[in-house]
Write a structure and sequence with these properties.
By secondary structure, the chain is of the alpha+beta class. The chain folds into three domains: about 5-130, Butyryl-Coa Dehydrogenase, subunit A, domain 1 (Orthogonal Bundle), CATH 1.10.540.10; about 135-240, Butyryl-CoA Dehydrogenase, subunit A, domain 2; about 240-385, Butyryl-CoA Dehydrogenase, subunit A, domain 3 (Up-down Bundle). About 50% of the residues lie in helices and about 15% in strands. It has eleven helices and ten strands. A hairpin with a 2-residue loop joins strand 6 and strand 7 (about 190-195). Helix 1 packs parallel to helix 4 (about 80-95) and helix 7 packs antiparallel against helix 10 (about 355-370). The protein is globular and about 80 Å long. The protein starts with about 20 loop residues before the first helix and ends in a 6-residue tail after the last helix. Residues about 1-5 have low confidence and may be disordered. Its EC number is 1.3.8.6. Keywords: FAD, Flavoprotein, Oxidoreductase, Transit peptide. InterPro entries: Acyl-CoA_DH_CS, Acyl-CoA_Oxase/DH_mid-dom, Acyl-CoA_Oxase/DH_mid-dom_sf, AcylCo_DH-like_C, AcylCo_DH/oxidase_C, AcylCoA_DH/ox_N, AcylCoA_DH/ox_N_sf, AcylCoA_DH/oxidase_NM_dom_sf. This is glutaryl-CoA dehydrogenase (ETF). It catalyses: glutaryl-CoA + oxidized [electron-transfer flavoprotein] + 2 H(+) = (2E)-butenoyl-CoA + reduced [electron-transfer flavoprotein] + CO2.
């Protein structure tokens, strides 16, 4: 019997389903079944080989996971809470799979949906929702992660065209993407561009030898005088508000997703503790082990309730940026603590890929960093509380 055979919803102490609609439960259960059937049996091998399972993209599209919270243009049009529940279940499998859905839907597709023209939306979004066109989101640069205002990538006008040169780093999906959303400084401030990845002067390099997010694709984009027509410009995105609105979509999904990694770590440790019998009794019967399990379960319930509340606010059109920062900061911080604590219950066996907690903990090091570090979200909340900006 494997640890997965023993997994149930032991972390749910508050009857969370009572707070969900039948449609939300059905969507969650369908994604959970997909994760159980397609991801759990294979994720250890993908992680070890640093392999992203591109063969699952059509299946994720059929489940309506790509751009699922967007409406029209072939997009599923699901609620924010449904999207959050899907993110949680995907990340219970692995952060890399949730990240794929986030980059495709919350970043690349959302940029076109929020800031593109009708022509751009009609051209790109249906194929992206179907998974036949993959997108990436080029904002972060080697020397400007938390400070995108200092980006060096520049787009200059040349007649009716734009010519872009620059370097982006930590760009998810770059090697499999057909289109990149590239943010560049211009004489008019920061603007966004839709860049086909087969454009002359566009180069992608895979980032290898990662210790985290191994079952995902992270790349560098190098643009050398990439010439684009005027129709490549996202007309409604001016200044940093453009990429930040997309980042907030992704950050919202992270607040849900990391609770999936936390829950899976907890369930793995719980299952192990019931079958491991040091000193002639189950490990789960020791007081110190029960304290660890209880502390983990309490934080999972609190974090999932927070994510659900943020989802209800988002569906009501009331969600504010500082609230997203609260969810991303608190839930990611707690999730990585839970994954690390779960590993301690597994003892030495916990450092192998037979068990999930250390894999989740390694992944969460990346999740804790991207879409805003702990420090950045702390300062967002500090500014909201005090009314004083401490960024500089």
């Amino acid at each position: 019997m494997s640890e997965n055979d023993l997994i149930t919803d032991n972390s749910d102490l508050i009857e969370l389903d009572f707070l969900l609609t039948p449609d939300e439960i059905a969507l969650r259960d369908s994604v959970r079944s997909f994760v159980d059937a397609e991801i759990r049996p294979n994720i250890a091998g993908w992680f070890e080989k640093a392999q992203f399972p591109v063969e699952l993209i059509p299946e994720m599209a059929k489940l309506g996971l790509l751009g699922m919270h967007l409406t029209g243009y072939g997009c599923p049009g699901k609620s924010s809470v449904q999207y959050g529940l899907a993110a949680l279940e995907l990340e219970a499998g692995d952060s890399g799979l949730r990240t794929f859905v986030s980059v495709q839907g919350s970043l690349a597709m959302a940029a076109i949906y929020k800031h593109g023209s009708e022509e751009q939306k009609s051209e790109w979004l249906p194929g992206m929702a179907a998974g036949t066109t993959i997108g990436c989101f080029g904002l972060t640069e080697p020397d400007s992660g938390s400070d995108p205002a200092s980006m060096k990538t520049f787009a200059r006008r040349d007649g009716d065209d734009w010519v872009i040169s620059g370097h982006k780093r930590w760009i998810g999906l770059g090697t499999i993407a057909q289109v990149a959303i590239v943010w560049a400084m211009t004489d008019e401030g920061v603007r966004g561009f839709i860049v086909p990845t087969n454009a002359r002067g566009f180069e992608v390099q895979l980032i290898e030898q990662k210790l985290s997010m191994r079952a995902s694709i992270q790349t560098e984009l190098i643009l050398s005088d990439v010439r684009l027509p005027s129709t490549a410009l996202l007309p409604k995105a001016t200044g940093l508000r453009g990429p930040f609105e997309c980042l907030n979509e992704a950050r919202y999904g992270i607040a849900w997703g990391v609770m999936g990694a936390a829950r899976d770590s907890f369930e793995s440790a719980l299952a192990y503790s019931k079958t491991r019998t040091p000193f002639d009794r189950p490990l789960a019967g020791f007081q110190l082990t029960q304290q660890k399990l209880v502390d983990m379960a309490v934080e999972i319930n609190k974090g999932t309730l927070l994510a659900l509340h943020l989802g209800r606010l988002k569906d009501a059109g009331r969600l504010q940026p500082h609230q997203i920062s609260l969810g991303k900061l608190s839930n990611t911080r707690e999730a990585i603590k839970i994954a690390r604590e779960a590993r301690t219950i597994l003892g030495g066996n916990g450092i192998t890929l037979d068990h999930s907690p250390l894999r989740h903990a390694n992944n969460l090091e990346s999740v804790r960093t991207y879409e805003g570090t702990d420090e950045i979200h702390t300062l967002v909340l500090g500014q909201h509380i005090t009314g004083i900006s401490a960024f500089r």
